[in-house]
């Protein structure tokens, strides 16, 4: 993605071109999109039907936990173990 397009996307969201580049890079690393350095062409690597908002969210905010769960839960409880993943 070229610099002009990055700046254009950033301006549409009243954001920083640096942040747009970082997000695009992370989406590329997680194989959700394909970008070519210096090219304006960015493509999805998966059918949108096979992508979830959660996948995208976790890519751009990997350290954010959706649920605040006490990590001292009983590990024998399947629900508690599942909740710790999110």
What would the keywords be for this entry?
86 residues; mainly alpha; elongated
Structure description:
- This protein is mainly alpha-helical and 86 residues long.
- It is built from 4 helices and 2 strands; from the N terminus they run ααββαα.
- Strands 1-2 form a two-stranded antiparallel ribbon.
- The chain is elongated, with a radius of gyration of 17 Å.
- The model has no long low-confidence stretch (mean pLDDT 83).
Structure described in brief:
With 86 residues, the chain is mostly helical. It has helices at residues 3-12, 17-29, 53-60, 78-84; strands at 33-35, 42-44.
Fold blueprint:
Layout: H1 3-12, H2 17-29, E1 33-35, E2 42-44, H3 53-60, H4 78-84
Antiparallel strand pairs: 1-2
As laid out across the biggest beta sheet, the strand order is 1-2
Q: Distance N terminus to C terminus?
A: 32 Å
Shape: elongated
Number of E-type strands: 2
Query: Structural class, please?
Result: mainly alpha
User: Strand portion, in percent?
Assistant: 5-15%
Q: What does the average pLDDT come to? A: 83
Report on the biggest sheet. Answer: 2 strands, antiparallel
Rg estimate, integer Å = 17 Å
Helix content: 40-55%
Number of helices: 4
The unreliable regions are none
Question: What sequence of helices (H) and strands (E) makes up the elements?
Answer: HHEEHH
């Amino acid at each position: 993605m070229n610099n002009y397009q990055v700046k254009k996307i950033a301006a549409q969201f009243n954001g920083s071109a640096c942040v747009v580049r970082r997000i695009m890079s992370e989406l590329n690393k997680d194989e959700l999109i394909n970008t070519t350095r210096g090219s304006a062409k960015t493509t999805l690597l998966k059918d949108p039907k096979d992508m979830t908002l959660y996948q995208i969210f976790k890519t751009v905010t990997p350290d954010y936990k959706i649920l605040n769960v006490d990590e001292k839960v009983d590990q024998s409880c399947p629900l508690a173990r599942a909740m710790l993943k999110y």
